[in-house]
Amino acid sequence: MITIEQGQYPIWQGFSLHLPADIRFEPGMNYRLDGPNGSGKSSFIHQVLLAKIRKRQDLHIICLEQQMYMQLYALRAWAAVCHPGKKIVDEADVWNLLWEDLAGIADTKPVVIISDEAHRIAIPEGLKRPHCLIYSSHSYTVAGSLALQFVPQTDTQSEVLLRQAQGREEI
What is the pTM of this model? Predict the structure, then answer.
């Protein structure tokens, strides 16, 4: 579905991410970005992953940012126009609205779901299209996730390694 090639990725002046091997995101898999604050997880999402897939016409992309409260306002406005009477109160309502809209799209393109610092992720069991979940969370792990481990090597570089996720509450 998505391959990020091995190499050095400059993130901002004086900081880069090193991928010692290709990272392949596959349909049907969940990937948790794991590492300390400042290790490059959000920057990886925006400057590496989204930059790679943003213009692909063969995928649907759902991306939720860290500041969920800001997105709640936008999605409430969207719901008011496109789904009159639909209440958007919290993150669970956002996910439900997104799945409802996705279910109404007639194609069978795979969906890449990216969530930066979500508190809960609720992918419906009956999602009828291939999907890949890529998320960061300091508080939980979606069952069966692989970990994309961001390991600070120096003040100027983190290494990104693919491993089995562990050590958090599974949902």
Answer: 0.88
